[in-house]
Amino acid sequence: MMRALRPVIWSTASRVLDTFVVRGPKARPSTTPRLSYAVETPYSAGLEKQDSLTKYLVTPSQTHGTVPGSLVRHLPLRTASKESVANIAKQKFHVCGPMVDDAENNVGWRQLSASWSNLLQDTYMGDGGKYRSRRYATFGWRSDQQNLIRMPHMPLFQTIDVNTLNGGKTRWFAPVEESTVTNGVFHNIISQAVSVFTHREIQEGRTADWFIEVDQMRIVAQPHAVGNPTPEGIHTDGTDYFLAMIVDRKNITGGRTTIYNGNREPMFETTLRLPSSAVFVNDREDSMHDVSPIACCGGEAGYRDVMILSFTNRVRPGSIERRFGLSA
Question: Which of 44, 103, 142, 183 is the least crowded, having the fewest Cβ atoms under 10 Å away?
Answer without folding.
Answer: 44
